[in-house]
Amino acid sequence: MEARDKQVLRLLRLELGAEVLVEGLVLQYLYQEGILTENHVQEINAQTTGLRKTMLLLDILPSRGPKAFDTFLDSLQEFPWVREKLKKAREEAMTDLPAEQDQMISDGSMRNLGSTTSIYG
């Protein structure tokens, strides 16, 4: 999962927990698509409350590969308002990302320039 998608899940964690997303078809869809294993589904279902189930799902998702976030969005057919909120937060994270990348490139270039100077200086 991309860093921005992990950030979106972290920023909206409490709101997502309040929605009890694991009821219905969400877990089964994620299992069907290979995002969750059978053990994941059993571990999530063993939790005593909807909030704990959702929090465990949110803990597992970031480690489940590059398709996990998009597949999670697809699984939210029963929760269109949640899906839209996640998409909007992702778009906002994407618009913030270029500025951060420019800063990292700039910082990296300065470090490289410093090391080049020391080699030839």
TrEMBL record:
Lineage top rank: taxon: Eukaryota
**Domain called CARD: residue spans:** 1-78
GO CC terms: cytoplasm
Which range is the signal sequence, renumbered to this chain?
A: none
Q: Which GO terms describe its biological process?
A: cellular response to mechanical stimulus; positive regulation of apoptotic signaling pathway
Supply the InterPro entries for this chain: CARD, CARD_RAIDD, CRADD, DEATH-like_dom_sf
Write down the CDD domains for this protein, in alphabetical order.
CARD_RAIDD
Q: Which Gene3D superfamilies match?
A: Death Domain, Fas
Recorded GO MF terms: death domain binding; protease binding
What is the protein's name according to its record?
CASP2 and RIPK1 domain containing adaptor with death domain
